[in-house]
Design goal:
Elements (H helix, E strand, L loop, with lengths): L2 E4 L5 H15 L6 H6 L2 H12 L7 E7 L2 E10 L10 E9 L8 H15 L4 E7 L3 H9 L3 E11 L2 E10 L2
Parallel strand pairs: 4-5
Antiparallel strand pairs: 1-2, 2-3, 3-4, 5-7, 6-7
Helix pairs in contact: 1-3
Length: 171
């Protein structure tokens, strides 16, 4: 039975594995292979422990748990790319599901839970960034009520520039 709860420090290794394997699966053919190959769970665990223990951390991290183990992870908080006149907005910083479970409702459960929690925090609008060429993720977010809002940003991975689109959801 799938359940969503707030992440705790014991979840960090599982969340790091979900994130690294998620990147390597979702971004294959988009992000340069050398960049993806260089990602390690151990390095991610180290970075995640530092972020997780930061004082005044504003992100909320959720895990979807099935059979006692995390199978998906979402992180959200105040919008980091607030536009003038936008009003209070939250942002989905990350959402990853174990690659072998994609399409089984884990991501939908996580994003629905994150939306409810953002609304409770008085964030009536939510935004997120998605790589232009990540068509599967774009379809997922569009089904969750997001639409591109015209904002873009470029990220560089091993000297390759990739464009991200900002998506916005207004319930």
């Amino acid at each position: 039975m799938l359940q969503v709860r707030e992440m705790n420090e014991d979840d960090i290794p599982a969340v790091s594995a979900i994130r690294v394997r998620g990147w390597q699966s979702a971004y294959a053919g988009i992000v340069p292979p050398a960049y993806l190959d260089a990602m390690t769970v151990e390095s991610d665990v180290s970075q995640r422990r530092k972020r997780f223990s930061r004082p005044r951390r504003q992100a909320t991290d959720l895990v979807a748990v099935d059979g006692g183990a995390p199978v998906g992870w979402a992180s959200f908080g105040p919008c980091l790319s607030q536009r003038p006149g936008e009003g209070r907005a939250g942002e989905i910083y990350a959402l990853y599901v174990r690659p072998d479970l994609i399409g089984q409702g884990v991501g939908r459960t996580l994003i629905t839970n994150a939306h409810a929690r953002m609304e409770n925090l008085q964030f009536p609008i939510s935004v997120l960034w998605v790589l232009h060429d990540n068509h599967r993720a774009r379809r997922f977010y569009e089904c969750a009520g997001y639409k591109p809002d015209g904002e873009t940003q470029d990220d560089v991975y091993d000297e390759i520039t990739l464009t991200e689109l900002r998506y916005q959801r207004v319930p």
